[in-house]
Amino acid sequence: MTEKRVIGNIFALFIVITMPVPARKKSRSAVRRRRSHDHLTAQTIGLCQTCQAPLQQHRACKSCGMYKGHSVLDVSRQTRRTIKKAKTAPVHDDHTHDKDVVSAKPTLPKPKKKKAS
Q: How confident is the model over 11-59, as pLDDT tens digits?
């Protein structure tokens, strides 16, 4: 009885489940006809009515927070944050890097000597 189970399990390993396959190759025109709608379209970008900043259509302005003449976003926090970042950002006018001489070998801490007891 156990031999039948073993033989049955061995045959179960060799059963191949096949997936459906197209009957024939699609022609170039059929493929291109199907792909004709896959192209990307450029986004339409307009100008904000109040601050003239570039803006995606039907969206609130990120710089002034207005949408169709109404204030819908509180941008005062964002404005304060960007001003604060601009003040604290380091200015990299000097790019000579002569002062920052980096050695080729990294320095490792020296191992402590063990005391002889």
A: 565 666 788 898 999 999 999 999 999 999 998 999 988 888 899 989 9
What pTM did the predictor assign? 0.39
**Token pair for 12:** 């179960």
Residues 59-64: contacts with CB under 8 Å, at least 24 apart: none
Instruction: Give which of 30, 32, 63 is closest to 48, Cα–Cα.
Output: 63
Structure tokens at 66: 């207005």
Kindly give the residue spans of alpha helices, DSSP state H, lying in 14-112: 28-35, 76-88
Residue with tokens 């949408």: 67
Contact between 63 and 48 (Cβ < 8 Å): yes
Judge whether 64 and 78 are in contact, CB under 8 Å: no
